[in-house]
Amino acid sequence: MLSDKKHEGDFVNISFNSKCEISKDTFVMMAGPCAAESRDQIMRTAESLAELGIHIFRAGCFKPRTDPYAWQGSGEEGLKWLDEVRTQYGMLIISEVSNFMNFAAVESCVDIIQIGAKALYDHSLLIGSGKSQKSVLVKRGFGATVNEYLRMVEYILANGNQNVMLCERGIRTFETSTRFTYDLCGAAVMQDITKLPLILDPSHAAGNSKFVVKLALASAAFDCDGLIIEVHCNPDEALCDKAQALTIAEYKELYKRVSEIISLNGRRIV
Ligand code: PEP
Ligand code: MN
Tens-digit pLDDT profile for the chain (270 aa)? Predict the structure, then answer.
C-alpha cells in the first residue's frame, strides 16, 4: 500500500511554494467561505485573510447540495473569482469537484483539488485526481470507516499522485446535538498508520460557529498538520453552511491562539 508508513519513508511533505510547505515543522491554516457566492464576497474575504498571512484560500464553486432545489453554487464564474484571488493576493486555491462533469474546470483552476465527503466513493474523481499533477485533499465520508476511507484514498495514490492530504470532518453517529461527530479517535489511527498529512475540519463537524473555535483549539493540540475552516465576510448572509461560518474577527482571534498552541509542538503556521 502506497499510503502505508512502511512504504518509502515516513511522511509525505507537500511543497507548494517558498512560503507554503506541509511538513512536520509547519501547520497549514486553510480558510475561506464554504461557497464562492459573488465576486465582492470572495475578494473581501480573501483580502482580510491575505492580510492575516493565510496562504491557502478555500471556496466551493460546485456545491454538492443535499437538496436539488437549493442554490448549487456559482460554477465556472466562481472559478474566475478564485483565479483573481490567486493573482491579486498570491494565495493558493482549494476548491471542490462535485462530479466528473466539473472535474476538468476545477482541476485547471485550483492548486488543490478537494474531494468532498459525499464524493468519497466517486471513482471517476478518485482516478482523475490520481492522474492529476495537482495536490488533492480528500475528506472522509461521514459513513466511511477509517479503513474504507483509506481504501478509497489509495485509488488516488495507485493512479500516480502522492500529494494527497487526509481530512477528518466528522462522521454520523447516534448523536445529533452537533452536525456530525468529530472523530479524533479515527484521526489518531489515520496518523498512526499512514504517512499522509492530516488536515482537520472542525467547521463541518460542529456545524455551529459557537463550537468551531473549541474544536479547532483541540485540533491544534492534537498535532495534526493543519486546519481547514470556513470564514465569511458576512456570515448572516452566507448562502451555504451559514451557521458554522466564523466572522473574520473570530477567525483572527482563533489564528492567534492556534499559533501559540502549535508552537508548543515545534510547528509554525504557513
Ligand atoms: C465543504 O467543504 O464545504 C463541504 C461540502 O464539505 P464536506 O464535503 O465535508 O461536507
Ligand atoms: Mn461547507
Answer: 888 887 667 899 999 999 999 999 999 999 999 999 999 999 999 999 999 999 999 999 999 999 999 999 999 999 999 999 999 999 999 999 999 999 999 999 999 999 999 999 999 999 999 999 999 999 999 999 999 999 999 999 999 999 999 999 999 999 999 999 999 999 999 999 999 999 999 999 999 999 999 999 999 999 999 999 999 999 999 999 999 999 999 999 999 999 999 999 999 999
Q: Is the pTM of this model over 0.85?
A: yes
How remote is the CA of residue 104 from the centroid of ligand 1, in Å? Answer: 19
Q: Does residue 58 have its Cβ closer than 6 Å to ligand 1?
A: no
- Angstrom distance (rounded) from CA 157 to CA 51: 35
Which residues are placed with Cβ below 5 angstroms of ligand 2, an ion?
34, 241
- Domain containing residue 16: 2-269
* Secondary structure of 196-245 as H, E, C letters: CCEEECHHHHHCCHHHHHHHHHHHHHHCCCEEEEEECCCHHHCCCCHHHC
CATH number of residue 184's parent domain: 3.20.20.70
**Dihedral angle sign, alpha carbons of residues 105, 106, 110, 113:** negative
* Number of domains making up the chain: 1
Proximal ligand: closest to the CA of 241 = 2
Distance 251 CA to ligand 1 centre (A): 19
State which ligand 1 atom lies nearest to the alpha carbon of 201: 9
For the Cβ of 204 lying below 6 angstroms from any atom of ligand 1, the answer is yes
CB of 61 sitting under 6 A from ligand 1: no
- 179 alpha carbon, closest ligand: 1
